[in-house]
């Protein structure tokens, strides 16, 4: 199974659901993502309820709570408003963990030099974004994804739009990047 694909984004203001690859494309490796705290796994989403690989990740990383969200105009209340909110650049005080059960989506994250990296997510991709990283989320042109949201403990839904550099978690994240 293939893993996530990532690349540096262009500066176009065109439809954010498009890939936005530079020309020529500048891929970003899994190692480069790990160096900024982003980790991913490829799992079998067809057996997510009984998958021993998912259970091991959950146990090893302490993911004790999960739910499932379907992002589709016919299923998600306030669909357009939610998409706009998800695409606002923000950070969280906790890690963001998402597992794509169906459909496709993009996570955009900032690298050390503040450039956007687009991460293409497809069925079976699980990703963790570290607390304090600036990021955003959008659908692809398919306008649909279903994802499991995982949390350590009770879910926290609060996003802090950029600028949010005053938060301790942001300062710890930036400091960890400088030490790495």
Automatic annotation (TrEMBL):
Gene3D superfamilies in UniProt: Jelly Rolls
Any one GO cellular component localisation term in the record: cytoplasm
Topology versus the membrane: Peripheral membrane protein
Main subcellular location: cytoplasm
GO terms under biological process: L-methionine salvage from methylthioadenosine
EC annotation from Swiss-Prot or TrEMBL: 1.13.11.53, 1.13.11.54
Cofactor: Fe(2+); Ni(2+)
Protein location: Cytoplasm; Nucleus; Cell membrane
Comment on bound cofactor: Binds either 1 Fe or Ni cation per monomer. Iron-binding promotes an acireductone dioxygenase reaction producing 2-keto-4-methylthiobutyrate, while nickel-binding promotes an acireductone dioxygenase reaction producing 3-(methylsulfanyl)propanoate.
Function comment: Catalyzes 2 different reactions between oxygen and the acireductone 1,2-dihydroxy-3-keto-5-methylthiopentene (DHK-MTPene) depending upon the metal bound in the active site. Fe-containing acireductone dioxygenase (Fe-ARD) produces formate and 2-keto-4-methylthiobutyrate (KMTB), the alpha-ketoacid precursor of methionine in the methionine recycle pathway. Ni-containing acireductone dioxygenase (Ni-ARD) produces methylthiopropionate, carbon monoxide and formate, and does not lie on the methionine recycle pathway.
Name assigned to this protein: Acireductone dioxygenase
Organism: Salvelinus namaycush
């Amino acid at each position: 199974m293939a893993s996530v694909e990532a690349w540096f984004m262009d500066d176009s203001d065109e439809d954010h659901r498009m890939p936005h690859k530079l020309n020529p494309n500048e891929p970003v490796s899994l190692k480069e993502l790990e160096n900024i705290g982003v980790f991913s796994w490829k799992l079998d989403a067809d057996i997510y309820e009984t998958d021993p690989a998912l259970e091991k990740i959950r146990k090893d990383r302490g993911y004790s709570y999960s739910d499932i969200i379907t992002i589709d105009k016919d299923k998600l209340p306030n669909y357009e408003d939610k998409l706009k909110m998800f695409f606002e650049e923000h950070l969280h005080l906790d890690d963001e963990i998402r597992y794509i059960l169906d459909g496709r989506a993009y996570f955009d994250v900032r690298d050390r030099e503040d450039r956007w990296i687009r991460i293409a997510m497809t069925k079976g991709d699980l990703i963790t974004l570290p607390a304090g990283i600036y990021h955003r989320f959008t659908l692809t042109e398919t306008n649909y994804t279903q994802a499991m949201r995982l949390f350590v403990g009770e879910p926290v839904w609060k996003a802090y739009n950029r600028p949010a550099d005053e938060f301790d978690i942001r300062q710890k994240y930036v400091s960890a990047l400088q030490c790495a």
